[in-house]
Specification:
The chain has about 300 residues and is an alpha/beta fold. The strands form two sheets. Strands 7-6-5-8-9 form a five-stranded parallel beta sheet. α9 links the parallel β8 and β9. The protein is elongated and about 80 Å long. Bound molecules: N-carbamoyl-L-aspartate.
């Protein structure tokens, strides 16, 4: 059989042959796929766009020898009205052990985790609304400690759209726990009033003084309710050759909007760590998946 295009092309004995083989495979794992079966399968469900996170999760999964599947919402039964939980429950039944999810709605992944699945399913948050992006914070932590050693007492300045940034929220939570002194710098319209114990500085030169690391953030256009005065923002908050401290490292989760949050000239001369971040993301995500799969295998 070269193709299976339509049942009408199959003879009855061919159908019975398929059924017999399926019965066999339900009980026997072919030699070649034994390792993969033990290791399991990963499905990526991204309901928001992504380059770095998606590719590094995929790379991490492949490096671990996992089977990795990309779920395309627009080509799936979600477009027929099926909800994400029912989709996941079915993907799980088909054989997916870990679902890596990016979604616009805060609290959505936790809500999904509380539901009952027919088989064991692990969920991994790959960025949720404006509230959390745990693996980004882990990879930023990894990158920071590689360059700075212990973060105790280190000054890390986060500049930009704090309100809408899940990267900022997860980093603030993680890095403060390791003793980093976080300073947020943004215009008032990007100040997040829910961040109670975080130092805010409205003047970029004061904020960046003696920084050990500077983290730029993208203006999250897709989450803005009102227009912002972009030219003024660039004038007052762009990280550039003039205000960037010489000895600090420059970071950004990507994608960078050149000449908006960081000047092109600075990016091209001091942007090495920004490119190192997604690379580190592969290793960190491998670790996360490996630990989860240890649990699955036990
Ligand atoms: C970030 C995100 O999606 O939260 N990107 C990323 O995961 N590396 C930041 C952004 O989109 O601005």
């Amino acid at each position: 059989m070269n193709h299976l295009i339509d049942i009408k092309n199959l003879k009855n004995e061919e159908i019975l042959e398929i059924i017999e083989l399926a019965k066999y495979y339900e009980k026997h794992v072919p030699e070649g796929t034994q390792r993969k079966k033990q290791k399991g399968s990963v499905v990526l469900l991204f309901f928001e766009n992504s380059t770095r996170t998606r590719f590094s999760f995929e790379m991490a999964s492949r490096k671990l020898g996992l089977d990795v599947f990309n779920f395309e919402a627009q080509n799936s039964s979600i477009s027929k009205g099926e909800g994400v939980f029912d989709t996941l429950n079915n993907l799980n039944a088909i054989g997916c052990d870990i679902a890596i999810i990016r979604h616009t709605k805060e609290g959505f992944i936790e809500e999904l985790a509380r539901k009952h699945y027919a088989y064991e399913l692990s969920l991994v948050n790959a960025g949720e609304g404006k509230s959390s992006h745990p693996t980004q914070a882990l990879l930023d932590f990894y990158t920071l400690t590689k360059h700075l050693g212990s973060l105790d007492g280190k000054k890390i300045v986060i500049v930009g759209d704090i309100t809408h940034s899940r990267v900022a929220k997860s980093n603030i939570e993680l890095l403060s726990r390791f003793g980093a002194k976080i300073v947020c710098c943004s215009p008032d319209y990007f100040k997040d009033s829910t961040l109670k114990h975080i130092k805010y500085e409205f003047d970029i030169n004061t904020a960046l003084k003696d920084a050990d690391a500077v983290m730029g953030l993208r203006i999250q256009k897709e989450r803005l309710e009102n227009q912002i005065p972009l030219a003024n923002y660039i004038k007052d908050y762009q990280i550039n050759e003039k205000n960037m401290p010489k000895n600090a490292i420059l970071m950004h989760p990507g994608p960078v909007n050149r000449d908006v949050e960081i000047s092109s000239a600075l990016l091209d001369t001091k942007g090495d760590v920004i490119i190192e971040q997604p690379r580190n993301g592969v290793f960190v995500r491998m670790a996360v998946l490996d630990i989860i799969f240890e649990g699955v295998q036990r």
